[in-house]
Fold this protein.
Amino acid sequence: MQDNSLKDIKGLGPKKIQCLDRLNIQNLEDLVYFLPKKYNDKRFPQYISSLKEGEISFIKTIVTRTVYTGKILIVKAEDKTGKIDLVFFNSKYLASYFKSGEEYTFYGRVTRGKNKNLQMVQPDFDEASDSFPGIEPVYRLSRGLTQKDIRKFERQALEIYSKDEWLSEDIVSLNKLCDINYALKNIHFPTDEHAFKISRFRVIFEELFIFQMGLGIIKKQGLERTAGAKFKGDVSPFLSSLSFKLTPGQEKAFKEIENDLEEDTAMNRLLQGDVGSGKTIIAQLCCYKAYISGFQSAVMTPTEILAKQHYETFTKDFSSFGIKVGLLCSSMKQKEKKEVIDALEKGEIDILVGTHAIIQEGVNFKNLGLVVTDEQHRFGVKQRNSLSVKGKGANILVMTATPIPRTLAVIVYGDMDSSVIKTMPVGRLPIITQDFSSNSRRTVYSKVKEEVMKGHQAYVVAPLIEESEALDILSAEEIYEDLKGKFARVGLLHGAMKQEEKDQVMAEFVSGNIDVLVSTVVVEVGVNVPNATVMVIENCERFGLAQLHQLRGRVGRGKDQSYCYLVHKNLNEISKSRCDILCQSTDGFEIAEEDLKLRGPGDFFGTKQHGLPELKNADLINHYGLLQKIKPQVDEILKKDPDLSMHEGIRGKVMDMFGKDGQITL
Ligand code: ADP
Ligand code: MG
């Protein structure tokens, strides 16, 4: 085994080691797998006469003179075909670097200056020599590190590093992969385009292969249905205590879930349903069924506000059945927590609602049979697993209102069965969405006033808490101050407030004592106040599409007509498209697909937020086809060797990618 440390790299002192560490580079392998983010093509210089405005170009010129005006240095240069100005800001020292009559190379975007001269602003530069740098890698940097440093380190590392082929001959030949050491060399310092292409393919293939292998293992472990808590009994007593009937969508979803619950094996199911489709009641039905079967349930939420709201709903709805509901949140006093934890262990609590506090050490259930996680997109695969460990064989229900494009859903939730609520409760009117420029704020708030006069309530969401000098954005505090003059009962809610204050404000809003609630995105998920009929989103251009849809979902939860007003200040192309999509559609699935189109394939759209490892080189959208091609190859290996004990090389790589967060244990 080769030494993987960085100790043989010259020029790498403790300072630079720290810089590399900030880029997550701790050893030789990390270094050679730290790939360029782009390349400068410095193979052949162009003549000035052939330069095109807007293009990035490489030139070799003689400097004729340097002019210093204010803070700007202009280097005048020419070749035999023309003249060009090289413009540098705040670089006084450069004035003495460039010598008239000497030759230099420059690399940068060609533009035209006010004086109509061709120019490059802040180009890369070097003294000219007979040979040119060729294709030059450009890396992501951290403070204290230059491109030259990192190129030097990479060159040395590639000399020392060598990796034995870790993929089987079959895989290599089937996928026409080039040698890995060749690939790494040519990705950093490509000799030509073909070499670069096959090298890049090899590296992307590797990453997707390991990714798919890890997912395969997670899936297998998830689908290996362990013996599980078996529920029985009729939920109709609880159903008939409700003030409404289930929608057909809810009925269908619950039937699928109930079937699972009555099996001997543990359930592992995802419930998708758009905002407002009524997922909470499904969770309650499951908890009820757990209770009558003699099991405890855990309900986990991403925010404390949502946990408390569920706690109240559950307590109210279940009190007549003698079902005890408990609450556990990080902000509770130690003593209160202890009481809950003790009661839980003794089996005196039937349903525990809480934030991630309920998966922490020291929280033990007497007889856990069901785990529900609400608004799952905030929980990773890892947390999902750790909760199921608390109750081996517990039935798992994951609920999400953030529809994710199908491609990603298959990847993230591939280990689960899935149900979808497709219908909304009857009598819901589609939310009317309109966008306004900030000049029309007056109109917006007069519309808010109309609704408040009718006895309804409104949310006003702002991106920032406090006023910021750097950004021209209205903060929640400023809006709050402003609206206090316009409305009688205004509340303010944001993440930096003390938990008690937040609870107080939220409670007042729920009870109707606050008409207009100004808040940050703390109300984003789950919050349910059906009397609220207006959602104003200030500086909506600062929010993503999925987030805007979630925010809008706070209204339209009752039978009255609801409104969403998007207020914008500086719309660019993308934020304009977002507004248009929201104004036209209220369908979360449609919006998710549009969102993906807008973000484009370059965006790795948050695999991390779903608890999966981040891909460094591959891209799930662009390389989806390749991922599909890899899948059967991976499955084949896992079928014969489920824990990869016969594939040491692959196993090591999989653990590197997935092992850190305990997503996989092999
Ligand atoms: P979400 O799916 O966004 O979590 P909730 O479970 O919070 O939605 O439900 C939204 C609102 O719809 C709640 O006020 C709930 O009481 C109500 N609701 C749920 N199901 C029905 C139904 N079948 N008929 C009428 N109202 C319902
Ligand atoms: Mg909900």
Notes: DSSP finds 22 helices and 21 strands in the chain. The first strand starts at residue 38 and ends at 42.
